[in-house]
Design goal:
By secondary structure, the protein is of the alpha+beta class. The protein has a single domain, classed as Outer membrane efflux proteins (OEP) (Up-down Bundle). It is built from ten helices and four strands. A four-stranded antiparallel β-sheet has the order 1-2-3-4, with no helix packed on it. Helix 3 packs across helix 5. The chain is elongated. The relative contact order is 0.13.
Length: 448
């Protein structure tokens, strides 16, 4: 490369050559840019933006906000204008004064049930916002779990590839020993079976990795080819126990708020059956005698401008429709309260289950780690014996296949340790979610 650069500098068209060289270098760098790593924080952020569940929850927030505005606007005067001209001349007394155009203003002045409806709409909006926060937390959990599991799966694939290489070398050794009459044919078959098992394990892991990659692509909206994990972006998952102060989950808070909203609606539907409501109204008519003989039916000519206003008091006496509606609302309120209690009880059970699972997985992870360390020490001992010999006439000399068997066993113990750690990580994330500490995990992601 140094020689090429000197020639380019001495060439008459050195500037052109350097430009071409820079273009080639830029093209060579494109695959690296396209294959840039995507951090876990980026995946979570993209998943929240792309999630259909989050979009639906946001739509519910918008709907609840519009419903609250609709309830409040009942006390804001509404103005309506109307106009019309007769198509044919009117004949006789029509019952209503003919007008060219009219204007009306109406509003609710006072009504206790309406106050309940406004409060109910406010709590429904708070519930929708809590449900939106819950949807985001669930997307965060799903994206984090898939990302971490894919990272562990990639590590397992690397170990299985090493196992497969060792198993392939073991087959070669056994075939040579069988041809030399040292080992029977069954030893060759056992080695081939080990290789086939390693190949099957690799195929299963590759299929699982593709599935997780597709899941991340669906969550984030990225192409699967654009997702390259960054192991360093995965923070340590906080260790929590059931005795940690639990926070109210957004989903449970949403259920409680929605139940209270239904209670207020039921109260309003019940009170509207016996409490009066006051309304205010203004009416203006611009009358006309065009194409009609209305003045023949009045003692005085019909005035052009007509204005009226007043307070309307509506006192309910007998309305079976509203009474049935109040019973329906009461049933909805009872259902919402029961669902909120069920959600809370289910979350308590989930906390208890995950806490027990984490204790068990902690012990399994420790056992798997110790087994991996023992296998690593045994591999070192085998390698040392193969290199230096046993040093004793009584101990038999190890065969070359002992190294490959030790390597396969050591990698297998590493896989078991990885699987135990993955299960523990997923359980810890689930407990974070159940205890309402998902925000702590988000803070960890942002700090990475």
């Amino acid at each position: 490369m140094k020689h090429t650069t000197i020639l380019a500098a001495n060439h008459p068209n050195s500037h052109l050559l350097l430009a071409r060289f820079a273009a080639v270098a830029a093209l060579a760098a494109l695959p690296l840019a396209a294959g840039a790593q995507v951090s876990l924080a980026t995946v979570v952020e993209l998943a929240e933006r792309n999630s259909s569940a989050v979009h639906l929850a946001q739509a519910n927030v918008n709907k609840a906000a519009a419903s609250l505005s609709e309830s409040r606007d009942a006390v804001i005067p509404s103005v309506a204008l109307s106009s019309g001209l007769p198509t044919f001349p009117s004949i006789g007394f029509t019952g209503t004064p003919p007008s060219i155009w009219s204007a009306s203003v109406q509003s609710l002045v006072y009504g206790i049930p309406q106050q309940h409806y406004i409060s109910a709409a406010g709590y429904a909006l708070k519930s929708a916002k809590s449900a939106l926060a819950d949807a985001r937390e669930q997307v965060t959990l799903d994206a984090s779990t898939a990302y971490i599991e894919l990272d562990f799966t990639n590590q397992e694939l690397a170990l299985v590839s090493q196992q497969e290489d060792a198993a392939r070398r073991l087959v070669e050794i056994e075939q040579q020993r069988a041809e030399a009459g040292v080992d029977p044919l069954s030893a060759v078959l056992d080695a081939r079976l080990t290789l086939a098992q390693m190949r099957l394990k690799r195929i299963q892991l590759e299929a699982h990795a593709e599935e997780l990659l597709s899941q991340l692509a669906a969550l984030t909206g990225l192409k699967a080819s654009e997702i390259h994990l960054d192991h360093a972006s995965i923070p340590e998952i906080p260790e929590l126990r059931a005795n940690v102060a639990a926070r109210v989950l957004p989903g449970i808070e949403a259920a409680r708020l929605l139940a209270h909203s239904h209670d207020l609606v039921a109260r309003g539907d019940q009170e509207i059956n016996y409490l009066p409501q006051l309304s205010f109204g203004v009416q203006y008519n611009r009358n006309t005698t065009l194409l009609n003989d209305v003045n023949k039916y009045f003692a005085s000519p019909l005035p052009t401008n007509n204005f009226s206003s007043g307070i309307s008091i509506q006192v309910p006496i007998f309305d079976m429709s509203h009474r049935a509606k109040s019973r329906e609302s009461a049933a909805d309120a009872l259902k919402a309260r029961v669902e909120a209690e069920q959600a809370e009880h289910q979350n308590d059970l989930e906390v208890t289950r995950l806490s027990g699972t984490i204790r068990e997985l902690d012990a399994l992870a420790e056992v798997a780690t110790l087994k991996q360390q023992i296998a690593a020490e045994q591999l070192k001992a085998v390698l040392a014996q193969l290199e230096l010999g046993t040093g004793s006439d009584a101990a038999p000399q190890l065969s070359p296949k002992a190294e490959q068997l030790a390597r396969i066993d050591e990698r297998q113990k590493q896989q078991e340790a990885l699987e135990a750690t993955l299960s523990l990580s997923k359980a810890r994330l689930g407990l974070l979610r159940a205890l309402g500490h998902m925000s702590d995990w988000l803070d960890e992601l942002k700090s990475k």
